[in-house]
Each structure stands twice: as structure tokens, then as C-alpha cells.
Design brief:
Blueprint: E1 17-23, H1 38-50, E2 55-59, H2 72-88, E3 93-96, H3 100-109, E4 113-116, H4 126-133, E5 137-140, H5 158-175, E6 183-186, H6 195-203, H7 205-209, E7 216-217, H8 223-228, H9 243-256, E8 260-263, H10 266-290
Parallel strand pairs: 1-2, 1-8, 2-3, 3-4, 4-5, 5-6, 7-8
Helix pairs in contact: 1-2, 2-3, 3-4, 9-10
Length: about 290
């Protein structure tokens, strides 16, 4: 398993990092409404940390396909008390948002990084917020908001196109004063991608790893896994039946050397990356003894 670069300001476990998803929304595809109240959201964030999640990623706006946007004020209302309470409990927290104003308030409340599914395209002010904070910034490959992205899944070669479009986002971030050691890349599985595109990206992750920045993979419970696990009648497996497949993806990508995975249920994924790390250490020791 090749080593992965480590961004500043986030935990650096001796294995692939596990980021837990905390959707404080009524309409997310997998768990919408479960944690829309602050007490339930905070309790689940604490539970994810106790289960081994290295980071809890708090989001207040659904990015499921077809989702409509919510006002910034509503997004702030949803996430700010949750970030504040988790940070006060020493939970390492990031903010999942495309809005600079939301990111700035969440960082002030104790979040230590920004997960931006638009890669900085949705809000040109985001780069300045991140540069001034000096915090980690996940740049995801993105072609448009959720309501439009299904129409944007056209590529010459999805792997090379995603790589090149992410390079443009890297260049823009660096030009805005963001440090290279703050950046994390996410190929955006399911965002303006078909199932075939997702599998191609997973199959050729080396192309993204060659950019020499940490790579985050978010495959958890996504529709392409539901279709893969469809029953004999062709009915896709519901989100809650996709966790074992998610852990399998986690093991595959951790062995390839990705920096982190973003998942709904951390415990099994922590186990998966722990196993991969143990196997990698054994291989390394055998290689040294063979020399």
C-alpha cells in the first residue's frame, strides 16, 4: 500500500482516515431527517467518534441528485449548533458546504476543515476563507448543482477528464493563496457520474494519486452500489443494505493508498482500514527481511 500525503490540521492515523457523515438535513438520500434535531445530531456525532471515526463531517444541505438548494441562513441554522457542541466535546469536525459564509461561521465555531463538493466553483469567496483560516479543504470534482448534475455526465475519458478538471481547481486554489498542504482531492463519485464512470474512477485511482495530493473517496451507500446489489427483479438495494459493499470499497481503496474515506457507518470501515494497514505492515516487514 503506497503512502498518502497528509494535509495539515487533520488527524494522521497510521491507516486510511475515516470521515463520518453527519447530515443535519430533512432530505438526504440515505438518512434524511434522522438527525435534523440538534440533540440527535450531536449524539450521533459523538457515537461516530466513539466508533472510531477520525473526523465527523457536518452538512446542512442535501447534495442528493435533484435536490433543491436551501437558503444560507437555514444551512447555518442547521449546522452551527451541532459543530459548536461537537467541537466543545473535542470531536474533530469538518463542515460540508459550498458556501463561504457557512464555512467561515463553522470554522469560527470549531470546525477544523471544509469539505466543498463544488471544489470552490459554487462560491468564489471560499478560497479566501480557506486561505485565511489555513485549514484543510476538500476539493471535489463537480460540474453543477444537484438539480442539474444528471445532465452533465458526459466525458471523453472520465478518469482523465476528472483529473484535468481537478488540476484546474488545484491551480485556482494555489493562485488564491491556499497552500498545497491544505488540499485534499475527491473524484466525486455519483456527482455527474454514471455507475460506469464511478467504477472506472475506482479502477484507475492511480491516475488521481499521481497528482501527489491526499485523495478522499465517498462511495458510501451510493446508488451505484444499490444497483450492483439489486435483487432478481432488478430492484436496487436500499441505502441501509449497502453498508457491507461500502466497507468492501473502503478496503479496496485503502489498499491502493487513498488518504481517507467518507462513510455513513464508521465502525465497519474503521475495521476495514485497520485490516488493510496490518496487511501492509506485514508486507513491508517481509520485504525488508527478503532484502
Amino acid at each position: 500500500m503506497p503512502s498518502s500525503p497528509r494535509p495539515v490540521g487533520l488527524p494522521a492515523p497510521d491507516r486510511c482516515l475515516v470521515m463520518g457523515i453527519l447530515n443535519v438535513t430533512p432530505d438526504s438520500f440515505s438518512d434524511g431527517g434522522r438527525f435534523s434535531g440538534v440533540p440527535d445530531a450531536v449524539a450521533y456525532g459523538l457515537a461516530m467518534a466513539a466508533a472510531g471515526a477520525d473526523v465527523v463531517d457536518v452538512g446542512g444541505e442535501s447534495t442528493r441528485p435533484g435536490a433543491e438548494r436551501v437558503p444560507a441562513e437555514e444551512e447555518i441554522r442547521r449546522v452551527l449548533p451541532v459543530v459548536t457542541e461537537l467541537a466543545a466535546s473535542a470531536v474533530c469536525t469538518t463542515i460540508d458546504t459550498t458556501r463561504a459564509a457557512v464555512a467561515a461561521q463553522a470554522l469560527s465555531a470549531g470546525a477544523i476543515g471544509v469539505n466543498d463538493v463544488s471544489g470552490g466553483l459554487a462560491d468564489p469567496k471560499m478560497a479566501r476563507v480557506v486561505a485565511e483560516a489555513g485549514c484543510p479543504w476538500v476539493l471535489m470534482h463537480w460540474r453543477g448543482h444537484s438539480r442539474d448534475m444528471a445532465t452533465l455526465a458526459s466525458y471523453s475519458d472520465v478518469v482523465l477528464d476528472v483529473r484535468d478538471e481537478l488540476r484546474c481547481r488545484i491551480d485556482a486554489a494555489l493562485a488564491a493563496g491556499v497552500g498545497a498542504d491544505q488540499l485534499i482531492l475527491d473524484p466525486g463519485l455519483g456527482f455527474a457520474k454514471t455507475a460506469e464512470h464511478n467504477w472506472a474512477l475506482l479502477d484507475r485511482l492511480d491516475v488521481l494519486l499521481d497528482l501527489s495530493l491526499p485523495v478522499l473517496i465517498g462511495a458510501s451507500r451510493k446508488a451505484f452500489l444499490g444497483r450492483l446489489l439489486a435483487d432478481e427483479a432488478g430492484v436496487a438495494a436500499p441505502p441501509g443494505r449497502r453498508d457491507a459493499a461500502t466497507a468492501a470499497i473502503t478496503a479496496l481503496v485503502a489498499d491502493l493508498g487513498v488518504w481517507g474515506v467518507r462513510v455513513h457507518e464508521p465502525a465497519a470501515n474503521v475495521d476495514a482500514v485497520t485490516v488493510v494497514a496490518a496487511a501492509a505492515r506485514t508486507r513491508a516487514q517481509r520485504s525488508l527481511s527478503d532484502d
